[in-house]
Amino acid sequence: MTVPETAVAGAITHKRVLQIALPIVISNATIPILGAVDTGVVGQLGAAAPIGAVGLGAIVLSAFYWFFGFLRMGTVGLTAQAAGDGDTGEVAALLTRGLMIGLGAGVLVILLQFPLFWLAFNVSPASAEVETLARQYMAIRVWSAPAAISIYAITGWLIAQERTRAVLVIQLWMNGLNIGLDLWFVLGLGWGVEGVAIATFIAEWSGAALGMWFCRGVFQSPDWRNWVQVFNRLRWVRMIRLNTDILIRSMLLEAIFLSFVFIGSDMGDVTLAANQVLLQFLMITAYGLDGFAFAAEALVGRAVGARRVADLRRGAVLASFWAGIVSLLLLFGFGFFGPKIIDLMAKAPEVQAAARVYLPYMMLVPVLACAAFMLDGVFIGATQSRDMRNMMAVSFVVFVIAVLILVPIFENHGLWAAMLISFVARGVTLGLRYPALERSVSAS
To answer: What are the residue boundaries of the structural domains of the chain, listed by start?
Structure first.
């Protein structure tokens, strides 16, 4: 079988890294725009409850979908390795497996929606009006769960093929359509919160359909439905183990961020608000570095599949080089524009003042977190998920110890310092495991 649209293996160059990374960076930049439009559109209804309902409903559903986010990372590493090994049959089978997991997970979310929603509203209670509107929003949007989760598999498969421009087009299409339908359904037809949900439902299903169209080359061969290959037990066991490790790693990472928010909430409303504003800088950092981490995933995975240690190292180094440049740009950008961004996001003078006090920590985040982001990409591409899981566990313990020691003495300064220490711990621990990764490839 030939996969017409699969990237052709070649020299690993700066140009190749940028061709993979930049579409992802641009794609990520569109994500906050959609959230702002959703908020702005329902804000025109002249009441606070619809804004809270859309925000709460979107967060709850995103949390349920995020649980299956391992599908994107696991698919990249396995597919890139199969492509590097020249196993086009397995490349096709991985797309089929990913879609099966995505669709099955989405159906499961639909079937379990009532207990899941009940749990969500008990964990995060809201006013009766907000909860009623949020339930209306979620009851509609949950029906696109199979599409939303399947997109993880589709984008992972495309990234492994180094076809990140297709990922960019999918993101632009989904967000653009969502925004257009938001304006029409809510402002034009007066459908309110339900209109926002219907717009997202249509956008997610159309995004999945567009993604399948970009994968059409693989469906021109019977390999994608070679059921002996698709249901190969050893392949499924490997995929499940990989995804389980990634899930545990992601849950530990999420536990760090949730702990940060919960601990900060005990320090007063002003400190909590300031931390929430500054966490948006962390999101900007993630959006900026993700593209280069994805480039590392694709290039390292292909090199591991081909058992070329030199290519593995070069892919990791070049992707990290550009990530380092972006990290420095973010550091200086946060230092220069940070106060202005804070003033745009928070109008309360006391929150602005508090956020400025802690802004230096955010200036350090891109530099101190760069190694963690990039080594995550390297280890995902190499499918060394056990190391990722174990080193994340070590980093979590380091974070907890840092919180216990620093927060009682330095309060919010100590909390931010603990967060930075956790990033450094992830980078250092994964870095210590990198030589073993190269040795495993050399020995294979």
So the answer is: 9-231, 243-444
